[in-house]
Amino acid sequence: LFRLLQSLARGTMSSLASQIMAKYPMVRVLTLSDQMKALMTYIRDQQISREDFVFYADRIVRHVVEEGLATLPYVPNQITTPTGAKYDGLDFGASICGVSIVRAGESMEKALQQCCRKIRIGKILIQRDEETAQPKLFYSKLPQDISGRHVLLLDPMLATGGSAIKAIEVLIENGVKEDHIIFLNIISCPEGIEALAVRFPKVTVVTAEVDTHLNERKYIIPGIGDFGDRYFGTDLH
Fold first, then answer.
1. Would residue 226 show up in a list of annotated catalytic residues for this protein?
2. How far does the chain reach from its first CA to its final CA, in angstroms?
3. 111-165, pLDDT tens digit by residue?
4. Other CB atoms within 10 A of residue 226 CB
5. Distance between CA 120 and CA 98 in Å, rounded?
6. I want to staple 171 with a disulfide (CB 3.0 to 4.6 A). Which of 176, 190, 208, 224 is the partner?
7. For residue 158, which of 111, 191, 200 has the smallest C-alpha distance?
8. What Å distances lie between residue 7 and 2, 13, 30, 64, 168, CA to CA?
9. 31 in catalytic set
10. Which of 80, 81, 132, 217 is catalytic?
């Protein structure tokens, strides 16, 4: 009974997610409580209002960010409580910054700033080259000392992995160590995870849920549609 209650408290994880984590040790998939599963259901619903989409998406991103922060190194930190007693705790063991992949990744900045006040956030703009159909860097603005930091890379969707791989290439070109990069997203798929893990096996990936596949148009299924359009209100349909 105790083990059953523990299992219920932890929530559930799909067999697909379990298989992904067994195959790729650097991937972390959130264990969804019933509450979190409900939030994921709300943002997937095509009938939800933009206001509600933003509200529930922000809550989910906060969970993803917290899980990402848990992967960072920590060091012992003894403090004194108001009672005069000593408390052996922890403190961050590394300097960090955020980098959002414009535009959808900017939707995750608020949650990161709520968890880490005054955190510095860089930006990378990647678009598809119309001639080659490959991701192309159009703009980047990163903290000057980024090479000495752990980087939380922000993008809510991991589909083909093209944009994420290009963004990681940019970070590494600017001196960031591969194992200092933590890629945070809400919804991923096996194709994108595999592409990213094969290219950069030391990058940590934290995702809320793994969907089943990409369709012929490279959309995640069951998916969520265009996250950026729905979050920023630019979906004209």
1. yes
2. 49
3. 999 999 889 999 999 987 767 667 889 999 999 999 999 999 999 999 999 999 9
4. 15
5. 6
6. 176
7. 191
8. 9, 10, 14, 20, 36
9. no
10. 132
For the ranges 10-14, 104-108, 158-162, the lowest mean pLDDT is seen at 10-14
Phi, psi (degrees; rounded to nearest 5) at 188: -130, 180
> From CA 142, how far away is CA 146, in angstroms rounded?
7
Question: Average pLDDT, stretch 97-122?
Answer: 96
Say whether 91 is catalytic. no
Supply 129's token pair: 């080259």
Q: What are the φ/ψ torsions at residue 31 (nearest 5 degrees)?
A: -85, 115
Overall pTM surpassing 0.85 (yes/no): yes
Q: Which of 128, 179, 234, 235 is catalytic?
A: 128
Say how many C-beta atoms besides its own lie within 10 A of residue 229's C-beta.
15
Is 10 part of the annotated catalytic residue set?
Answer: no
- pLDDT value of position 95: 95
